Hints:
alpha/beta, FAD/NAD(P)-binding domain, 3 domains, binds flavin-adenine dinucleotide
Amino acid sequence: MKKRDGTTAIVIGASMAGLMTARVLSEHVDRVTILERDRLPHDPAPRKGVPQGRHAHILLATGQRLLDGWFPGITDELVRDGAVPVNTKDMLWYQGGGYLVRADLGFITMSMSRPLLEHTVRKRLLLQRPNVSVTDETPVDGLIVEDGRVVGVRVDSVEHRADLVVGCTGRHTRFFDQLATVGFPTPEVSAIRIDMAYGTRVVRRRPDDFDGTVALVADDPTRSHRMGTIVPVEGDRWIVTVASYHGDVPPTEPAGYADFSRSLPSPVLADVLARAEALAPVLTHRMPTSKRRNVDRLKRTPPGFLVLGDAICSFNPIYGQGMSSAALQAEALGQAIERHGPTSATLARAFYQRAATVVGVPWRIAAGADFADPRTSGPKPAGTDLINRYFNKVWQACHTSLPVARQLTLVQNLLVRPESLMTPAMVVRVLLAARRSPAAGPRRRRDRGQAAV
Length: 453
Ligand SMILES: Cc1cc2nc3c(=O)[nH]c(=O)nc-3n(C[C@H](O)[C@H](O)[C@H](O)COP(=O)(O)OP(=O)(O)OC[C@H]3O[C@@H](n4cnc5c(N)ncnc54)[C@H](O)[C@@H]3O)c2cc1C
């Protein structure tokens, strides 16, 4: 237990990054106050400041592992409130021209609506950490900077002072603009243009709607690059999300939405939509770029302040990485504080270095996959085209090889590094298994045909 020394922290934003940050900080400072602009609902419900909360949210195994550690009992509570446990053997996954082999990989993830997850994490945080409080309807206007150090925040001209301020205000964070006006450099931004559009529909769920608990379907990125997912959530509902890139926006009227779903290479989503009772109109969400602020390259950053979560890296959401990346960043913040202390002038820099490492892996996975679409533009990580050619083989190998499908699932869940799919033994396994894929024959014939033209 930490010795009481009167240290205080303010976390701005009570979404997933803010809540997990507060949990970590509560072990290192005496008092943590979360300031949130929105009025927070008493029940699990969507809210204005988190518009993405109405769309399907997948919690990767890494994020779940960290939440389980910070909030013992949270999984049981989520299940009691209607979250659906998903075994990997119940995932129907179509990618690379075929279905992945299915097997129990020894871990279960939870499927629920984003509002239920956030609500439960907030409830547990306030219950389990008495030194944390949340004040809602409190929009932070700016930081208070004195002698080059951030010493608090301003809300409606009222000052709230703290030893450490953490900005968890998401992708559109404005604090760096304010810091620039007092002479601090702004981080260079890497933006990958994807012009992604989501279309989401909530429908009534029956457990026998299809042979599985979750389905993911992705078309070839060099063809339509359309994709979709169907996830079970509390209240016997499915959230169906379809998505595409570069201006191919899913229609919102029901017939057009059904046609879009039918155009996917597996009929699973369209078949469920055709039978199930619709519970809400189709909602859309657009995201022009995957965006990463390279905070680790900042030459100077004020002591007493750092940002975390989507404010550092806002990924193409289709890979389900945002909340788990925020969890990994919060864990990294705890490690940096253990080493440097919560009030140290070197904390932000030390944290940003660690955050760059934990964000780097999901960023490379997402950016690499985004560049498989030839219309994608932006800073392409070195070696991406070569890796993408290899990953075409990995997807095909997953149609027949359990060890490859298992390794890929571990990588996608951020449990092991992508390099584990590139060891010499794995490469041999991938290349041999890919030849057995039902997708390999026609494709090879077609490729030869194209080459001959
Ligand atoms: C369409 C879509 C689908 C997604 N799907 C997934 C998924 O399947 N899996 C996954 O892991 N991630 C997914 N994500 C990403 C995920 O939603 C975020 O990574 C996650 O919410 C963490 O973000 P955050 O807490 O950093 O910021 P946000 O969630 O954006 O929250 C920012 C918070 O700050 C508050 N705020 C803003 N300004 C102020 C201010 N001045 N003062 C006080 N409060 C303020 C806001 O009200 C809000 O509560 C998806 C994102 C999108 C857009």
